[in-house]
Specification:
- The complex is a heterodimer.
- By secondary structure, chain A is α+β, with helices and mostly antiparallel strands.
- Chain A has 3 domains: 33-105 and 141-236, Aldehyde oxidase/xanthine dehydrogenase, molybdopterin binding domain (Aldehyde Oxidoreductase, domain 4, 2-Layer Sandwich), CATH 3.30.365.10; 246-316 and 376-452, Aldehyde oxidase/xanthine dehydrogenase, molybdopterin binding domain (Aldehyde Oxidoreductase, domain 4), CATH 3.30.365; 323-368 and 463-745, Aldehyde oxidase/xanthine dehydrogenase, molybdopterin binding domain (Aldehyde Oxidoreductase, domain 4).
- In chain A, the strands form 7 sheets. Chain A has a 7-stranded mixed sheet with strand order 10-11-8-18-15-16-17, with helices on both faces. Chain A has a 5-stranded mixed sheet with strand order 13-21-20-19-14, sandwiched between helices.
- Chain B folds into 2 domains: 2-74, Roll (Ubiquitin-like (UB roll)); 77-152, [2Fe-2S]-binding domain (DNA polymerase, domain 1, Orthogonal Bundle), CATH 1.10.150.
- A 5-stranded mixed sheet of chain B has the order 2-1-5-3-4, with helices on both faces.
- The longest helix of chain B is centred in the C-terminal third of the chain and has 16 residues, at 137-152.
- Chain B is globular.
- Classes of the chains: A alpha+beta, B alpha+beta.
- Chains A and B meet through helix 7, helix 9 and helix 19 of A and helix 1, helix 2, helix 3, helix 4 and helix 5 of B.
- One FE2/S2 (inorganic) cluster (FES) binds at residues 36-39, 41-46, 56, 58 of chain B.
Chain lengths: 746, 167
């Protein structure tokens, strides 16, 4: 990595990331770190050395700016700071902090560029740096792209180290002891004679000196907390029902509210009749909101009841109302006009395809809901020239901006109190709960409004995962896969999402064929083309985004071609694989699953390998068939993340991602009829239940080079590995999800 | 006016008789450990013990609760004095987002009160109504097994009547 620059007082440079490579613009601006939000209004006896550490005489606060959506982000961010700062769990509190450009996401940038993650060539590095600079200049604080650990890794440990060294400096000043005789341990500077001065007592002196910004990070061999099975900071609360989620907040005098708005997403409210609703018990008020109505009531139940009693006449959807039309739009998008980008054009695909008897296939993936178990909610109060918003959001600064736009307040007067939430899977990148809570609150200044979506509204107003289709042609023989052409057509989830967030999306969408164009296979004649279907229903990022569809397409096709050529699916992949990290995960699942030992009749194994967000993940799924029903018995999964920072959480995220991928492939889809999503609750969109859950064996591979995320990458291989296993067990090839349309699961 | 016993104490509430216990607990009594996930008995996030039996509180109109004994996650144990099932959940680090876990813990507590030596299939069957969108199922299984062991080891159990509360 590059140099560590000295920086001015109260600022902090993010290591080398923004400095490496030569971008032509804004170098000066990029080097200037945004102001430290913690430095505002600091008391004289309090110290903040950088945007992540705040020390006051009464305690230490660590800021974890990445939103915790259940992935343990808050805990792991705090542990990274605490590791270098020599703090023990329990010696600090953790807060999400206020939205700030200081918390821009470095690592998201790395995945936003059209280069293989293994490509460290100059062009790839420059592009990553350029995109990083743009994200930094726009101050985008994002939780997404499985980037929390990668983004935090350097800067949070460095933040902890800066705090530690500055506190030592302060102790040297206070005691007159020589700096090199001081050490730190468990929240205190330790003097040569063993006396301990707690950090909190050093805050006043530390606040007056320049932070010590030239620091050395500890080697992994010296870690106390990282890389060890440490208890997550929220485990006790979440096991005893004492963790407060956004939906649980109930400040004094709060008014409960719910909304009903056009289930045809983006359609208008033509008229409504709320007479019955208004006469129902506990109902206080019914207010108009964009394309809908809000009910204010004494409690959430009353609000729900009244909302469903309102008779609404909804306008038409701004997209085709019937599912068949959506599929027709996808099918007709494989045209020159819709071509988004040719991602790979190697060798002579046409000639090779013409030279042998090949296969032609079509694969399909449906819309899917995010449906985190905690329905959307938000609290908002607008009063005395400020607005307060309590909600979990992955885009805090955009949420803040939206509140500012609706209230007319400057963003500096909008306070976002980011909350723990019951999952997101991408749903909390959207803004409906924030918009409606604010629209209600602005009509009732001084009141605290608590908006809760019913589960049905949450489903109706989800922005689902993209539907998509792939058309594949390929030729294989005993020498392997000789030619492969994959054309992928999906609407652009990123463009749809960006349009709602007012963020520009220039150029092609690398997510349309994600998992396909960056597949780590050396196939001599290979073509990957992405076609952008014009937006149909509005869609959004769903855990693992494009790779959740692309991974299914390519890993099903590779399987078919290898089997067609009489090759073993795993050995055949290994023979094609040109990325060392991907080879290692394949080798790992081969060994873990005892792949080369045959299974009894009625059983089958399938394998898949997908690289997403820079993390290669291989999975082997083992199924058995009894009385015509399929049971998923075992899954073996290996991921290369560079370094496993938090082993327990790593295993949980990996297993959870596998279950997410399998469960939705088994039995979920969102379909539209009359412009509305037909699935409105979990009986129609269930996912996996515990009685269907396989035994899952997880292995994290640690090359030691950098760190990459694990929140999303286990998802994409799950569906194709399952389809491939079902083929191995039954001879039935599933080319469309959900598989429950074609086979029965036990 | 409806009277019932909640976590060992008598409570009275004045709410419409069709109001589900879930919302009475959360919005009227401020006990928010019991969660709303679906409202139609599909997710189990709202599970409480109703006269000793695991029930979905979103399906229990308050009129049916009159005179009953209700135990919620808050009454099962506390961070300082967790119930063995909660302790097992902590030891096994089950939670991801944690939103489903109150319901999971209550379901497991009820299940283990009837079966201290459960098979894997029995655990799966007992827990199948509790959805976890984060996919914590493997650790739920481990935690239920661990809790069963803790409950089956009588010397380990903490008796609030005889124990001084130290340690
Ligand atoms: S909220 Fe009661 S079962 Fe889902
Ligand atoms: S832990 Fe998130 S739903 Fe179960």
């Amino acid at each position: 990595m590059g140099r560590i620059a000295d920086v001015t007082r109260r600022t902090f440079l993010f290591g080398s990331v923004a400095l490496a490579g030569g971008v032509a613009f804004g170098v000066y601006k990029v080097q200037e770190t945004p102001d430290n939000p913690l430095a505002q209004g600091l008391a004289p006896d309090a110290a903040s050395f950088n945007p992540w550490v705040l020390i006051r005489p009464d305690g230490i606060t660590l800021i974890a700016p990445h939103t915790d959506v259940g992935q343990g982000a808050r805990s792991v961010q705090a542990l990274m700071i605490a590791e270098e700062m020599d703090l023990e769990p329990g010696q600090f509190t953790v807060e999400p902090g206020q939205p700030s450009p200081a918390y821009w996401n470095t690592a998201m940038a790395a995945d936003a560029v059209p280069f293989l993650h293994t490509d460290q060539g100059l062009a790839a590095r420059s592009a990553r740096t350029a995109i990083g600079a743009v994200i930094k200049l726009s101050g985008q604080q994002v939780t997404g792209g499985s980037s929390t650990v990668a983004d935090s890794w350097e800067k949070l440990r460095r933040a902890g180290a800066v705090a530690r060294e500055t506190l030592k400096q302060a102790a040297a000043i206070d005691t007159g002891e020589a700096l090199d005789t001081l050490s730190t341990e468990a929240g205190a500077v330790v003097l040569r004679d063993g006396r301990r001065i707690p950090y909190t007592q050093l805050a006043a002196t530390a606040a007056r000196i320049d932070p010590v910004n030239t620091v050395t990070l500890r080697p992994p061999s010296a870690w106390r907390l990282l890389g060890k099975p440490v208890q997550r900071l929220d485990t006790v609360a979440k096991s005893t029902g004492t963790q407060t989620f956004g939906i649980d907040l109930m400040p004094e005098g709060v008014i409960n509210a719910t909304v009903r708005f056009n289930p045809r997403q983006g359609g208008a409210l033509l008229s409504y009749d709320a007479a019955d609703a208004l006469s129902m018990p506990g109902v206080r008020q019914i207010l108009p909101v964009t394309a809908g109505v809000a009910v204010l009531a004494d409690n959430t139940w009353n609000a729900f009841q009244a909302a469903s009693a309102i008779r609404c006449e909804w306008g038409q959807a701004p997209y085709p109302p019937e599912m068949a039309q959506h599929w027709a739009a996808v099918e007709s998008s494989f045209t020159e006009e819709r071509l988004d980008k040719v991602w790979r054009e190697d060798g002579d695909v046409e000639a090779t395809l013409a030279s042998g008897a090949g296969i032609e296939r079509e694969y399909r993936a449906p819309y899917l809901a995010h449906a985190p178990l905690e329905p959307l909610s938000a609290l908002c109060r607008v009063s005395d020239g400020r607005a307060d918003l309590w909600a979990a959001h992955q885009f805090p600064r955009l949420a803040q901006q939206l509140v500012a736009d609706i209230t007319g307040l400057p963003t500096g007067k909008v306070y976002l109190h980011n909350q723990y939430c019951g999952g997101s899977f991408g749903h909390r990148l959207e803004f409906e709960n924030i918009r409606y809570a604010t629209e209600i609150a602005v009509q009732l200044p001084g009141e605290t409004i608590k908006l809760t979506f019913s589960r049905e509204e949450d489903f109706a107003h989800d922005f689902p995962r993209q539907i998509g289709m792939a058309r594949v042609r390929g030729v294989s023989d005993s020498g392997g896969i000789r030619a492969l052409e994959i054309d992928v057509a999906t609407p652009s989830a990123i463009a749809s999402q960006s349009s709602r967030a007012n963020l520009p999306l220039a150029g092609p969408d690398s997510q349309i064929a994600a998992g396909v164009w960056n597949a780590p296979y050396a196939i001599e004649h290979m073509r990957v083309r992405a076609y952008r279907v014009p937006e149909l229903a509005p869609i959004s990022s769903w855990r693992s985004v494009g790779a959740s569809t692309g991974g299914f397409f390519i890993e099903s096709a590779i399987d078919e071609l290898l089997i067609e050529a009489g090759q073993d699916p795993l050995a055949g992949r290994l023979a094609l694989c040109n990325d060392p990290a991907s080879r290692r995960v394949l080798e790992a699942v081969r060994e873990m699953s005892a792949w080369d030992e045959p299974l009894a009749p009625g059983r089958g194994r399938g394998v898949a390998l997908v690289v997403s967000f820079g993390t290669p993940v291989a999975e082997v799924v083992e199924v058995s068939v009894r009385e015509g029903k399929i049971t998923i018995d075992k899954v073996f999964v290996a991921a290369e993340v560079g370094r496993v920072i938090d082993p327990v959480n790593f295993e949980n995220q990996t297993a959870g991602g596998v279950i997410w991928g399998l469960g939705h492939a088994m039995n979920c889809e969102i379909t539209y009829a009359d412009g509305m999503a037909e699935q409105r609750n979990f009986h129609q969109h269930t996912g996996m239940r515990i009685n269907q859950c396989p035994a899952i064996q997880v292995r994290g591979l640690e090359s030691g080079e950098g760190v990459s995320g694990i929140g999303e990458p286990p998802v994409p291989p799950a569906a194709p590995a399952l389809a491939n296993a079902i083929y191995a067990a039954t001879g039935q090839r599933l080319r469309e999800m959900p598989f429950s349309k074609f086979v029965a699961f036990a | 006016m409806t009277s019932f016993t909640l976590n060992g104490a008598a409570v009275e509430v004045e709410v419409p008789e069709g109001m589900p216990l879930l919302w009475v607990l959360r919005d009227e009594l401020g006990l928010v450990g019991t969660k709303y996930g679906c409202g139609i008995a599909q997710c189990g996030a709202c599970t409480v013990l109703f006269n000793g039996q695991a029930m979905r509180s979103c399906q229990l109109p308050i009129s049916a609760v009159a005179g009953a004994e209700v135990l919620t996650i808050e009454g099962l144990g506390t961070p300082d004095d967790p119930h063995p099932v909660q302790q097992a959940w902590i030891d096994e680090q089950v939670a991801q987002c944690g939103y489903c876990q109150s319901g999971q813990v209550m379901q497991a507590a009820w299940f283990l009160s009837n079966n201290t030596d459960p098979s894997d299939a029995e655990i799966d069957a007992a827990m199948a109504g509790n959805l976890c969108r984060c996919g914590t199922y493997p650790r739920i299984r481990q935690a239920v097994r661990r809790a069963a062991e803790m409950l089956a080891a009588p010397v380990q159990t903490f008796d609030p009547l005889t124990d001084s509360g130290e340690g």
